[in-house]
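Question:
Write out your own:
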Amino acid sequence: MRSFAVIGLGEFGFSIAKTLSELGAEVIAIDESPERIKLIDSIVTKAITLDATNEKAIKSVGIENVDVAIIAIGKKLEASILVALMLKEIGIKRIVAKAISEIQGRLLARVGADEVVFPEVESGERIANSLVSSSINDFIKLSSEYAVVEIIPPTEFYNKSLSELSLRSKYNINVIGIRPEDDSDNIKILPLAEDVITEGDMLIVIGAVKDLDKFKKKK
């Protein structure tokens, strides 16, 4: 099970922490606001009230053991940079940082962020899904119930046709596109039942979120 630390529980950070937890990950949520911590306490593995810019405090919560740390602090650029520097020094394997401008993003990348995201463009839920599953390349939620996912098919799908796989009857999901490895810019939209999945293909699948979750767990 992958483990995450989410630092900053504004709208974006809360969405990240909640979705990661719902996907079965271990999540440490950190914020200096007791009210925000209280809201997420029953959702995540551990919720801690502290000032993340306090080096002694951040080191005391076992954050060095997480696989990924997400810096979701608001508009405080200095705080984001300081936390990124500390996490890099601690030895966090992967650091993802929220930025609100291109300049801020470049600065965060320079001080140690492995990936910079812009929440005005990408939702916390979408990013959380991509972080928790190595098989998911993209996740787009259409509504509270339905989503489109680009996913790496399991090896047992290789050299089988869509009719043989019967994904609709078995998992209640539909393949709406196939992106071949040898022609990644040419997605085959609405593939036919006789179309065969080959190694390297990406499947673009639509379905209810609950059904997509079941399919992901099968993998």
